[in-house]
Amino acid sequence: MREKDKIEILKDILFAEEHEFEEKIAQRVELLEQTLQEREKLSKKVDPIVSKHIEEFTKSIPQTLGPVITETLKEEIRLHKDEVVDALYPILGKMVKKYVAQEMKLLSAKMNNQLGFLAFWKRKVKSTFTGKNEKGLMFDDLNVAKIEQVLLIEKDSGILKASFAKSRAMDEEMVSGMLTAIKSFVEDAFSQRDQNLELIEYELYQIHLQSFATHYMAVVISGNYGLTSKNRLQDIIFDFYNSFMAMNLDLVFETNNSENSIVPVEKSKVEKELRKYFGNAKI
Amino acid sequence: MQKSKKIVVLGHFGVGKTSLIRRFVTDTFSDNYKVTIGVHITKKVVEISVENEVSLILWDLEGTDDIATIRNSYLLGTHGAVFVFDVSRPSTFEHLKDDLKIISDKMPKVPLMVVGNKSDLVTESELKEVLDEQEISVDFLTSAKTGKEVNTLFLKLATLLTTDA
Question: Mutual orientation of helices A66-79 and A16-64 as an angle, nearest 10°?
Fold first, then answer.
């Protein structure tokens, strides 16, 4: 036996375990290579089928899952109203902000028109004397109170006797009845028959109610209706009532107390007078 | 010349006051019962004769079991009144005499029509029996559902008011 063969035998004896290990690694590498090759083959066959299924599933979501999702959302919204409000609040806020900004732009344009030299000094002087700031005065100028409609109504029955309106958009006879019913209810509810309901606010409009013995007047006003406007309006109403209505409406209208010799005033004549007093009145 | 007259329509709960007015004003009827709260006001212009029209302002007052509790302020200045009861519900007319006395005390000299509504729900013989038992004098037996006698009622009242005035 040669020296070389002896060394080989000795190697085999000494490294027997390492041989086994080497073989196992070789087997595993081979297995891995096989798996990878098979997967690639499988993928080529399966992928189109899976893609088609996914596509069909996506398309059918509205029909299959839609009602369930809707119901779930409804339930969630019902159970978490506060959270929903919280979530929507910023969006709504932005919308409101946008609207306000738009309105401010318009107001600003109007204000610019008001900034004429004369108007400027007029406001300056007025501001000095009244102590009210110029912006406030400017705003008042832009939003003056205007008489939109006047109704002369019999106090007890609520029957409309005469009216004046810049534009007619409602049945004045029914409105007169309703105003009388509201007035009666409020005055009755507080058990104060000697006191009268004086003002009804309706969004952009205010209805001033001025009571007399047998009749009352309802004046619909738009704009900034303050104390000064109220005083001016009352002056006009009193002037109209005292000079035209001859102190006692029972005498001029056909009522149960009237006598045959009294000639009732025609409705058209009263309406003419209403137009004269209220048509161009500034309050 | 057109005149306006205030008519109040009153009676117990659910006797058909609102339906009666609706039939008269819009010629419609609905089985859907909604309670009137406070007062509801509607209007209809009635032609009595050529050149003689009257505008009826109809105050439909909320129903009540106790007629005495009706707000007096709603009755002020009334030109004519209609008291409605339900012919199929005795509880709405068993104290009719007392109810009418209260009404005439509240509105003296005001023409009043007594109306038995829902006449479509009972037979004529049943109706006669009931009315005879109660010694009730009824001006009209109406049906808001079929429209029977509804226009006649309001036309008669309007005529009465314009001839009285």
Answer: 80
Q: Domains in chain B, start-ordered, CATH in brackets?
A: 1-82+141-165 (3.40.50.300)
Tell whether A190 and A274 lie within a shared domain: yes
Q: Quote ipTM for the complex.
A: 0.82
pLDDT tens, position by position, A229-268: 888 998 899 888 877 765 444 445 554 544 454 556 678 8
Task: Give how far the C-alpha of residue A169 lies from the chain's centroid of Cα atoms, to the nearest Å.
Answer: 23
Q: Which residue of B has its CA nearest to A186?
A: B73
- To the nearest 10°, report the CA torsion of A115, A121, A123, A124: 120
Residue A66 burial (10 A CB sphere; 0-12, 13-18, 19+): exposed
Range of the domain at A152: 145-278
CA distance A49 to A40: 15
How far is B126 from chain A, CA to nearest CA, in Å? Answer: 39
Task: Measure B34 CA to nearest chain A CA, in Å.
Answer: 19
